[in-house]
Every structure is written in C-alpha cells, then in structure tokens.
Amino acid sequence: MEKMVNVFIMGKKYSVPSELTIMDAMEYAANSGVKLLATVHGASMDEIKRKPGIERLIKHRFFERYVLLGDGIGNVKAIFDDRGSTIM
C-alpha cells in the first residue's frame, strides 16, 4: 500500500500519495473534483504554455479560464478559455 500524506487546499484536508510532485498533486486533486486556482508568471500565454508542467495542465484542460494581467491594479490584458484560446 502506498504512503499517503495530507495536503491542505483552501483549508480542506486531502490525502494524496507521498511520491507525487506538486504538479502531480494538482492533477490528482483536480481529478478528485477539487477546483483549482493557481498563479503562473509570464508575459504571454505562449510563454506560459512553454513552462514545464503547465503545458500538461493546459493540454488536459485542468483550468476553465486563464487571465493575463497587465501592469497596474486591475489591468486585464486578455482572458483565455480552457484550451488557451483568446476569448477577450
């Protein structure tokens, strides 16, 4: 039997296999019905898609929306759908 560890997401406890990386843990959680919110730094969606691990999450559509923020408070440069296509 594999060893499980507790992780806390938004104050709720989940048990996940101990050998998972953080990206694996995110996939495990998402496949268990957990809604995910994450931040990734990048200047464009193309740059973000090239980041190791993130490309896999986009390909498997783990997020419903991606919001690219600009400089300043509340500056939204673009919004992308679950496939990474521009919707605004």
Basic shape: elongated
Largest sheet: 2 strands, antiparallel
Helix content: 10-25%
Order of helices and strands: EEHHHEE
Helix vs. strand class = alpha+beta
Strand content: 15-25%
Distance from N terminus to C terminus (CA atoms, Å) equals 47 Å
Rg result: 15 Å
How many E strands?
4
Number of helices: 3
Contiguous uncertain segments of 5+ residues: none
Instruction: Tell me, rounded to a whole number, the average pLDDT.
Output: 84
User: Strand order across the biggest sheet?
Assistant: 1-2
Task: Describe this structure as you would to a colleague.
By secondary structure, this protein is an alpha+beta fold. The chain has three helices and four strands. The strands form two sheets. It has a two-stranded antiparallel sheet. The longest helix has 10 residues, at 22-31.
